[in-house]
Structures are given as C-alpha cells and as structure tokens.
Specification:
- The structure holds 2 protein chains of 2 kinds.
- Chain A is about 30% helix and about 30% strand.
- Chain A is built from 5 helices and 9 strands, in the order E-E-E-H-E-E-H-H-H-E-H-E-E-E.
- Chain A has a 6-stranded mixed sheet, with helices on one face. In chain A, strands 2-1-4 form a 3-stranded antiparallel sheet, with helices on one face.
- The radius of gyration of chain A is 17 Å and the shape is globular.
- In chain B, the strands form 2 sheets. In chain B, strands 1, 2, 3, 4, 8, 9 and 10 form a 7-stranded mixed sheet that branches. In chain B, strands 5-7-6 form a 3-stranded mixed sheet.
- The longest helix of chain B is centred in the last third of the chain and has 52 residues.
- The radius of gyration of chain B is 40 Å and the shape is rod-shaped.
- The chains are: A alpha/beta, B alpha+beta.
- Chains A and B meet through strand 1, strand 2, helix 1 and helix 2 of A and helix 1, helix 8 and helix 12 of B.
Chain lengths: ~200, ~425
C-alpha cells in the first residue's frame, strides 16, 4: 500500500501538489488522468523517492520495490533483448542463476520470443514498451509507476499494452499517468484525476 | 555477464571527431614524451660515456707560469711540481703528474732519431698503467734499439757533445691517441719512457745524479733546457675542473683544460633537460585540459545511460565501477602499446637497448596515462553522483510566466490558496 497524506510540493513559489491525500492499495491498477504540466512527474518522483515533498507524509514500499517507467524508453540501443534483461536483472541480483527461468517466462508472456536476439535499436516502439514491461516483470516489484507510457502509441498498441499489464501484473500495484482523452482504454483500472495539484477519484 | 560486459554494451560510440582528436593529441604527446625522454637520456649517457673514456676531459694542463708583476711567462721547473701538488691536495681524487721532455733528438744505431718523452712516477702510481725500465712506447713497430745518448759538455757557448754512450731500449707499440701520447704534442718520432729510464738518460747525458739534476733545475734551467714540458692535473669529478683551474690561475699558472667544453657540455645538457621538461609540462597541461573538455562532452551524451542504470536499481558505486572499467581497460592497453612503441624506438632510432632510459620513459608513460585516467575517472564519479532525475531529465518543466501570473491573479482575487507565496 502506498499512502499519501497531505503531500504538498511547491516549486518556484507555486504550489504544484496541493495537500494530496490518496491511498493506492496493493494489487490494484490505477490510472491518473491529467493534462500536460499537471505535475504528475512530481507526484511519481515523490512516490519513487527521487524527490521529497515539502509537506505531508508518504508511506510507500522501499525504493527498490517500485519500478518506474518513463514516457521515453529507458533501454540501451546496442543491447539485445536478452542482454537488456540481464542488465536489468543484475541491478538487484548478484548473478544470473535464476535469470533464465524468469527470462523465458517473461518473453513468452510479453510476446518477445521471436525478438529475443534482436538489438533494441531494431525493435519497434511497441516492442520496446513490451521489453520494458518484461524488464519490470522479472524483478517482481510491488509497484510499477508508468509515466505517460501509452502516449504516442497507435490505438491497437495502446490496447495491447494495457492488456499485457492487466494480465501479467495482477499481483502488482500499477499506477499509470495518461492524458484525459485516453480514459476509454482503462475500463478495469481505478481512474483518478490530477487537476490543480489535487488528486481525486474520477467521476 | 559482469560489469565489464555491461560497460561494453552500454558504452556509446563517441563521435569520430571526439575519439580521433583525443587519440591524436594523446598519441602525439606520448610520442613527444618518448622521443624527448629517450633523446635527452641518450645524449646524456653518450656524452657521459665519452667524457669517461676521454682522459683529457678530466685534465688541466699547465705549461707555463706568469712572472709576477710582469706580462712575461716562464717555463715550469721542479719546484712547481711540489707547489701544484700542494694546491690540489684537498680535492678528492685529484693528482698531478709531470710530462718530461728532452728537447734534442737522440739517434739509435741505425741513425733513426727519437724524441724522448717521459711521465713522472705520480702518473703510474695513480693509474693502473705501467712502463718498465728500459722500455719505451712507440706508435711505430716494436723492436729493440741501442740509443746513442750524447754526453754533453756544458760550455759558455752552449752545450756540445763529442761522444755518445750506448743505452739499450726495448720499443713497445701502442696506439697514438691514448692516455700516454695525449700528454704530449703531436711531434713525430716520440717515444715515451718512465721516470727511471728518463733519469738514467739524463744522468748519462750530463753525468749528474738525477736528484742533483732536479735540485739544479728547481727554479732555473741550469743545463740549458727545460726538462718539464707540462704538469697535468687530473680531477676525478668534472665539476672540480673550474675550481682547480681558477686556483692555479690565482697562483700564476697558465692553465687550461683541454675539454673546458666539458663544463659547457654539462650546462648544455642541463639546459636541454630544462627546455624539454618545460615543453613537456606545457604540452601535458594542454593535453589534460583538452582531454577533460572533450571527455566532459562525451559524458554529457552518456549522462542518460547512467540515469537509466541508476533507475534500474544500480548504486552509484556500481555505475562508477561499470564506467571505470571502460577507462582502466583502455589505459592498460595504451600503456602496453606505448611501452612496446618506446622499446621499438629505442632499438630502431638509437640502435641501443638503453635499459635505464627505457624504464624511465615507461614510468613517465604510466604517470601520464594514470593522471589522464584520474581526470576521466573524476568526471565519471561526478556524473555518477548526480541525481537520477537530473540525469534522466524527469523534472516537471518549469512553470511558465503565464501560469505564474494566473496564480498571482487567483491569490489577488482572494482564492484560498494556502502556502502560496509571491
């Protein structure tokens, strides 16, 4: 569970998060619909621990149990799919002993089997998104933050990605930020809004 | 997969311009370093060797003395041997010896003429050289001769000779430009004997004991000629040449050290060393600055990759280790390459193994590459310690002026906007 209690953040004399009270429950999928420059990045940075709130308290998982995906791909273009996942795996594991099992499972579930030996630079945008999800999947996080992950994807790809999240991250708290126009894709998600620095349930 | 493998995967290809400019610059500098280092050391060792092997480089020649209060010169006499010995006795490794001459040519049984020269006992006791009694060194063929020593009559009208006395001499061949002949001028038919033989010839010529002859010639030419050609002072340390030369000059001895250039050579070498060091230091500072600027630019392109690794969960220490291996591996390769290059230069250009200069050069290469590596590692460390949000640029864009004005307006209109401060 992640609990934000009166979390406030001010930047350049402007309040960007205004006394946010919100609880994100375990194994629940959330989407935060917001407009551009609504400081969703600040909210996610605070949950991940990259930024601190000026006021209020946060009860969250440890930083290592939260995976953070950005709108742009955080992958190394020279690495193959497998190497990318090995690099990710070694960030928290001393060796590759249990990697193979997790890797085989992840590429199967996330439709990457046929691209396993391809370099990241040769993958399409949606394949890169799948690889990022596979990277996250093998780490078994408690929470995944996805910052504008669906933006710039064609409609079919958006559906595919959401489908993969719904099916493969059932035991994980997922919080996605997305623009308001994408609300139609998130039927199974708890929909929230971030407007004027305040987070609320979408009506 | 280990950190080295990761570093090879995550490294970004620097631009051709960047890699080639740094490689050329560092390569040129190390080339310059190798060449200057080997050259200076080569010149130094060669001149040292030459100075060690050439006897004259350690010798002060004294051929005359100045008559006090006048501008005229006087020949040297036996009392000057003692005076010069006294002047140099406090200098370690210094000794003086006399080159004796007989100004007449003396014939042998076949009418071959010989100019008799001799070196005093001091020369033989201070060196390992030896000439036996009744032996004479020559640059011609070795043979046994009978010297027809003239018996001199000293008269008012000068020295004359009516008879000769036979004296057997064994001639031994030696090279012309050696430690014996270098003490005398370039006269033909010179033969060199030891003091004992010389004394014997003098005794036969003038029918006077050697000690008496020396006494008579202690401060004047009692027998119509000057037996002392010159008094040489040998110094062990070249730096004493100037000191002793000045001391002899103060005591009216007209001295010179044939290789007075020796001091100049040392000064020249010191100057050369100073100049090369200055050039190398300036060039090194330049290389360091350019490498630092260029590598900082390269790291700016790598900044995002470091952010990705940190976002994956790698610690600052892990990320540093990954990028450090990129630098250290190349540094090792550079050291090996340039060391082999130095070795090749040493053999090909200087035609010599030059063990000591080579080791010094390799040490300089290691120091250069280590300093450059430290500069690079410091830049890597600083980048690794930067916040992930800065590296990945995931801060919300700065609030623009329009939004600021909007907020101020809301505040002015009395909206309850807690915590807002202008």
């Amino acid at each position: 569970m992640i609990k934000l209690d009166h979390v406030t953040k001010t930047r350049q004399s402007t309040i960007v998060l205004s006394s946010v009270d919100m609880t994100f429950y375990d194994n629940t999928h959330y989407v935060i619909l917001c407009e551009n420059k609504s400081d969703k990045t600040t909210l996610f940075n605070i949950i991940k621990g990259y930024e601190t709130a000026d006021d209020g308290t946060i009860e969250a998982y440890s930083q290592g149990s939260i995976e953070y995906l950005l709108d742009e791909c955080l992958l190394f273009p020279n690495a193959t799919v497998k190497e990318s996942m090995q690099i990710k795996w070694l960030a928290k594991n001393k060796d590759l002993n249990e990697f193979e099992e997790q890797y085989t499972k992840a590429i199967k579930l996330l439709d990457l089997e046929e691209f396993a030996d391809k370099k990241v630079s040769d993958l399409s945008q949606v394949q890169k998104k799948c690889l990022e999800l596979a990277n996250v999947f093998i780490m078994k996080p408690k929470c995944v933050l996805m910052l504008d992950t669906l933006e710039d994807l064609p409609e079919n790809d958006k559906k595919l990605i959401i489908n993969l999240i719904e099916n493969n991250f059932k035991d994980t708290t997922v919080i996605i930020s997305s623009c308001i126009s994408n609300d139609k894709y998130f039927d199974s998600f708890t929909i929230l809004t971030l407007l004027n620095g305040e987070v609320a349930l979408h009506e | 997969m280990n950190k080295q493998d990761i570093s090879e995967i995550v490294k970004r290809k620097p631009t051709k311009y960047l890699i080639s400019s740094v490689a050329v610059l560092v390569g040129l500098f190390i080339g310059l370093l190798i060449f200057s280092s080997l050259s200076v050391q080569f010149i130094f060792s060669e001149s040292k060797k030459a100075s060690m092997n050439t006897p004259n480089t350690h010798i002060i020649n004294t051929a005359f003395k100045l008559v006090e209060g006048t501008e005229s010169i006087s020949p040297l006499y036996f009392e000057d041997e003692t005076k010069i010995k006294d002047l140099i006795k406090d200098v370690d490794g210094a000794y003086s010896y006399t080159a004796y001459v007989i100004p007449y040519g003396i014939t042998d049984e076949n009418d071959n003429v010989y100019s008799i020269r001799a070196l005093s006992d001091d020369f033989f006791t201070s060196t390992d050289y030896k000439i036996n009694d009744n032996e004479a060194l020559t640059t011609e063929d070795a043979k046994d001769i009978t010297l027809k020593v003239p018996v001199m009559d000293i008269g008012l009208e000068g020295d004359t000779s009516a008879s000769t006395v036979d004296m057997k001499l064994s001639l031994t061949t030696t090279e012309k430009d050696n430690e014996f002949f270098s003490n005398f001028g370039d006269m033909p038919d010179q033969i060199i004997v030891n003091t004992e033989t010389y004394a014997k010839i003098i005794e036969l010529m003038y029918d006077v004991p050697w000690t008496e002859f020396k006494k008579d010639n202690s401060n004047m030419a009692a027998y119509g000629f000057e037996p002392i050609g010159r008094i040489n002072t040998h110094v062990e340390n070249s730096s004493d040449l100037n000191v002793l030369s000045e001391r002899l000059a103060v005591n009216n001895y007209d001295s010179s050290y044939g290789v007075g250039d020796c001091g100049d050579t040392t000064a020249y070498l010191k100057h050369l060393l100073k100049l090369s060091s200055t050039v190398l230091i300036v060039a090194f500072a330049f290389v360091c600055i350019i490498t630092r600027i260029t590598f900082k630019k390269y790291m700016a392109t790598t900044q995002k990759d470091i952010g990705i690794l940190k976002n994956y969960g790698y610690s600052n220490k892990d990320v540093y280790a990954i990028y450090k291996s990129l630098v250290t591996r190349r540094a090792k390769m550079f050291v090996i390459f340039y060391s082999v290059f130095s070795l090749a230069m040493s053999y090909m250009v200087f035609k010599s193994s030059l063990m000591t200069p080579l080791i010094i050069t390799i040490i300089l290469i290691i120091i250069t590459i280590s300093v450059l590596s430290l500069i690079l590692l410091n830049i890597i460390k600083k980048t690794c310690n930067t916040d992930t949000i800065t590296l990945l640029n995931i801060q919300e864009a700065e609030i623009n002026e329009f939004e600021k004005i909007k907020n101020v307006k809301q505040y002015d209109e009395g909206d309850d906007f807690e915590g807002f401060e202008e």
